[in-house]
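Priority: low. Protein: DUF3828 domain-containing protein. Input follows.
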Amino acid sequence: MLIHKGNFLKRKSASALLAAALAGFAVPLPPAHGAALATAAVRAPDAVAAEFYGWFLATLDADQDPLSDRYERLHAYVAQPLVDQLLKRGQGAGDYFLQSARLRGAWLRAPVRTATLRRQARVADVLVTLDGGGDAQHDVVLTMELDNGTWKIRSVSRAAVDASKSSAGRPGI
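Result:
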């Protein structure tokens, strides 16, 4: 298409003309279809954490080792560097994710409660409460990362209920 500008003729592409014509209209264009689906499909980190601990506790209660007997399912929730670290240790994953020496039966009967403490871009800290009433209540803090549209656990630490017991390795609540 030829455009007369001043004394010169300049050739402009149809897409450039359309863009120039639309520039006068402040009509926002919708995001690419794939980007919209990816954004909508990302579940909240606290929802993923609750689902993980529900599955994890049921797996332990069935006397199965999540790291060896249910590796594929564990890998769906846990970041690869942490999986590699747990495999290198060569011990069961139960103590790491619970941050406890034993599994309490009360934790199996009560729903897992979760809350997102902090979320920044691709990293979130999630408080997980395993409630068994009274002294059986147990809190851990997960650091999770967004990995290909899925929140995965990168590390777990025992939550300190007293700020004086809090440290980088044991976040306070």
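The beta strands are 2-5, 8-11, 112-120, 123-130, 138-147, 150-158. The CA atoms of residues 100 and 152 lie 21 Å apart.
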